[in-house]
Amino acid sequence: MSEKKLMLGNEAIARGAWEAGVKVSAAYPGTPSTEISENIVKYEEIYCEWSPNEKVALEVAIGASMAGVRALASMKHVGVNVAADPLYTVSYIGATGGLVLVAADDPGMYSSQNEQDSRAVARAAHVPVIEPSDSQEAKEFIKYAFDMSEKYDTPVIFRTTTRIAHSQGLVELEDRCEPIDIPYEKKVAKHVMMPGNAIKRHPLVVAREEQMSIDGADFPINRIEMNDTKIGVITSGIPYTYVKEALPSASVLKLGCVNPLPKQMILDFAKKVDKLYIVEELDPIIEEQVKSWGVECTGKEIFTVLGEYSTNMIKKAILGAELDIETPADVPVRPPILCPGCPHRSTFYSIKKLGIHVAGDIGCYTLGAVAPLGVVESVVCMGSSISTLHGMEKAKGKDYVKNWVACIGDSTFMHTGVNSLMNMFYNQATGTVLILDNSTTGMTGHQDHAATGKTLMGEEVLAIDLYKLCHDGIGIENTYVVNAFDTKTLEELLKRETQREAVSVLIVQAPCALLKSNKPKPAYHIDSDKCKRCGMCMKPGCPAITKAEDGSISINATMCNGCGLCAGLCKFAAINQ
Fold this sequence. Notes:
Shape: globular
Largest sheet: 7 strands, mixed
Number of helices: 20
Number of strands: 23
Strand content: 15-25%
Strand order of the largest sheet: 3-2-4-5-7-6-12
């Protein structure tokens, strides 16, 4: 009897990649894709790495594929934007060893700044898309994706969503296959995408898509489940599970390959049902194509383009059912907040005290936008804080940005911030950049990066020195390192450097409070006899400090990390360890 195991979708993808014989995996951490690499690293046959960004990750996988082995690149949907440059071109190049890009979309924006639909990117790039509906399919379909990649000489996008990535299901485990490494061949016309070669490759891409559309009816991952023909549904991914629960007697065309669509298979299915619905989360990617073929169907007329779907929503939309749903409990709102002992809190408190505005970035420190700190005033994408500040200066002049700083984390700085900093320096800008160095990629679960000194595979390596990179490498004379909890020195630097008509970099260092290597200091407590209830200690918004109805203030010793920020603010020596 074969072994079965309960697995997250991401864990199943990692298992499937191992079973498929993958030898190289590259990624940048980003929810909901992060756990793929964190599980792949457990398989010693696969080389795996955290790349500095998604573009690099895909390029590493492309190189491995060119060399003749199966390779995987994993990222969240906004990471696909970063990787778009190589993605669009490798569509023309194709694949030697199987090449798969996992694009993890986030309907509902649980941890993202938009609800991008990666299927639209794939259509524009002319890359096929495979989409599973549960953990078992995640494992099996990723294996099929590698076979498809090699059969049709194409990269393949493996699309998942948060619900697939983070839901568990039983997965049947199988042995690893060991594809023979394909010997490298010099193929300038195929691998060198200068205009003269690319123009000859484009017709091959078109022909490939047409052939895959024809072959799609025979793909085992596309299947028709004929039942009552009064209602027919075309669906894919996680919505398939909702459709099966909401409409158990309906006929269903389940698509595992959502680009290119199996046109004839869809046309034949449409003729067999009285009323056809298309159920897909986010954009009407399938619906628009099907309607363009003259097929009468219903989709976004009754379904939203926003967020995740559910069984109840589908029942109501198609059947008009009035559902007896229990009213959710009226629970208090729990907005996200920086952890007790977080060095970002200390930094933002100093910034707020000085009345400085912040161009922000993607990371835990984005929470500096919310109360009670409320200093972050812009967040666009990874690395954008520095470029945003630069644009402000070029629009309004040097004096305007003397009341602004850009704040970016150490991992995000290595991702794309370093390019923006080079741009500021090269174009003779004025602006102060704070690199919030907490020695990890905090927001996605404490992954290492090039400035931490450890690889994904656990190897100790020479860490990139942020000070030397900025001061010696780029040439920014005004580069300083300061402890995040040394608020006096930090405030002095901020006052001075924001008035300088040049580029300044403050590397604000203190490890993330949740790092295993960061041992908490003894907790602080408040001496009620000395406390004047002035509220100064509460201004930074540490969740370990609370105020009772009678006005007394206390520190929760089980939450306190002993950072000392509150003690430094107390003028009455009422807070001690």
